[in-house]
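User: Here's a protein and a ligand (flavin-adenine dinucleotide). What would the complex look like?
Assistant: Let me lay out the input and then the predicted complex.
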Amino acid sequence: MDLALSVEQEAVRKLAEDFVAREVAPHVVAWDRAENVDRSIVKKLGGLGFLGLTVPEEYGGSGGDHLSYCLVTEELGRGDSSVRGIVSVSLGLVAKTIASWGSEEQKRQWLPRLTSGEAIGCFGLTEPGTGSDAGNLATRAVRDGGDYVVNGTKTFITNGTWADVVLLFARTNDSPGHRGVSAFLVPADTPGLTRRTIHGKLGLRGQATAELILEDVRIPASCLLGPEGKGFSIAMSALAKGRMSVAAGCVGIARAALDAAVRYAGEREQFGKTIARHQLVQELLSDIAVDVDAARLLTWRVADLIDRGQDFATAASKAKLYASEAAVRCANNALQVFGGYGYIDEYPVGKLLRDARVMTLYEGTSQIQKLIIGRALTGVSAF
Ligand code: FAD
């Protein structure tokens, strides 16, 4: 694996770093307090090509390799995980899945709009009764002539209230032993689809997380994405790549924690010297620094495998597991360096800890990542 960035990769990383400094950092505290990122950020992300990374240029994407995608995601995650999540879902889970599985018509209909930020996508898999056990989902799509009629409820859907298109997973076949889940591209303004914002989140407060209620939602059969019955495989392949993006976002959180803690340790004085001169504070800082490097290397390894066309799913689970747990540890260690000030939202580390916590839960909890890794090691599925 070549760890040296190319000129193009360094340029796109710098573009993202500058974007965060200019368009994100000044607003982070206000967006978090208001529980609302300014939606105009989506067009700005699209304008710089961040919503089209790795999507072919013929569909409005900005091309690029997966390491570039990691670099941008890390910078966005360093700035604000709520903003990073917009990209990870609309590009990573939705646009890239359309690029892989969509018909020519679906690609032309959605990709230019999604990659430019004119439209935004959400990924509707989780339901109130099925989270980790997503294959058991209860939402149903019943064929009726040239249409499907969909009924069910999705919950915890990132970008849910903002989305123009829902990548929706619904059961189309109930016969025993048949997984029978299919994927659909549902325009969010389809009659019968209502959305409710979920308030009171511990972190990612700026993000539009929603419950989606589908009551007799009638969609033409042309909304089916990929073959009928392939939906579960489509969801799992999207999430495998998505885990790389979550891991890169976690590296961003860990780096933000490190930068803030080092800066503060050099300024704050106790016992007649800066706290940076106390050995136990240096231990906290060095633990964060090692986690940053380890999480980043595991994440880049996934990008490298994808760009070489090799199997990456287990590596993605390892990276997501390690980076998400590391992000929580790093933010918590940074908060310790800040002492009581870390507990106040004028200082950045409390938000980093709140935002980090969900990373061990979504796109497969830490326990689910361990079961994926365990299955690869033993050949036995222990779900
Ligand atoms: P459960 O599956 O009920 O798990 C509860 C606990 O049991 C966990 O500790 C879990 O690890 C453990 N557990 C479950 N099964 C096993 C097992 N076999 N062995 C060992 N332990 C097990 N979903 C979407 O579809 N789209 C989104 O955009 C999206 N965004 C989200 C945003 C936020 C802020 C949050 C909080 C969630 C989001 N999710 C989204 C949902 C997320 O993916 C689920 O919350 C996650 O998969 C876990 O499901 P659950 O919450 O139902 O927990």
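Summary: The mean pLDDT is 96.
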